[in-house]
């Protein structure tokens, strides 16, 4: 089953985040908490990332 371009774009956003920040946007030792973070889309962008770039990350 292929979920389509939406999943590909989401994955590109994750890769972009990792390249810019050096770590994943969603991390937790507890799998249930990690899944909740991913499904709600709650993550923080470090302050050293500029506003234009952080806007790009949030669009992905």
TrEMBL record:
Keyword Nucleotide-binding: no
One example GO MF annotation: protein kinase activity
Alphabetical list of PROSITE patterns matching this protein: PROTEIN_KINASE_DOM
Keywords per UniProt: Membrane, Transmembrane, Transmembrane helix
Transmembrane segments: 7-26
Domain called Protein kinase: residue spans: 1-60
SUPFAM superfamilies: Protein kinase-like (PK-like) (SSF56112)
Protein name: Protein kinase domain-containing protein
Native source species: Trichinella nativa
């Amino acid at each position: 089953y292929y979920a389509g371009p939406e999943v590909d774009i989401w994955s590109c956003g994750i890769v972009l985040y990792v390249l810019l920040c050096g770590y994943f946007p969603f991390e937790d030792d507890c799998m249930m908490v990690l899944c909740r973070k991913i499904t709600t889309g709650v993550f923080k962008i470090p302050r050293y990332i500029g506003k234009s770039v952080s806007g790009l990350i949030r669009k992905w």
